[in-house]
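Fold Annotation — chain and its backbone

Fields — amino acid sequence, structure tokens

___
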Amino acid sequence: MKLTPNKTIKPFIKAFFLGLSGEGKSGSTVPLSIAGPIKGCPVSGGGFELLVLDFDGKYAEIAYAILDDLKAKAKISSAQRDEALSRIDVVECRENTGIIRITPRGSRTPQEKIGVKGSATAWKTGAKQLEKWLPAFGAKTVLIVDSLTHAAKAAVNYSMEMNGRLNQELSWTDYSEPQQRISSLMTGMACLLYTSDAADDSSVV
């Protein structure tokens, strides 16, 4: 098909940004929040709003470190740094963990291990926050799930708690529910990519 001069292409670019653990994905997203010129960069910053579901508990620290470093090297101004931080909304989705005492299934002897203390809340926190953010998604919004690995662990904890087996060893039958929850999350994110209006989609969680 030959392109015609009358075709209008929407500027709304949607994409998945995925990679292996430790490759610098989180840090590379922080400069998206900077608006205006960045010294040494051929293009100006877009000033995007970053909505972060932080299952790792490290994104805020990374954001401060990168923006402070850019300011210290005079690549951005103090005002740019502060405005960029105001565009980053980080919601921590982490479990309260520590040393717990449980009796493994099939055993009569209590054991101490590192596990979830109290209730598993990380997955519920992320799901509820995503529902709150959904109506505000637009062309200047970047959704960050950091990281999918820890989100999957949160899904496991939530499913195990729902089945009355939080902190117990996993069996093969325990993997189905968490897989479905992560699949639902990824499907919802794909819907945000391929629908014309993200706010019209209600199938994220």
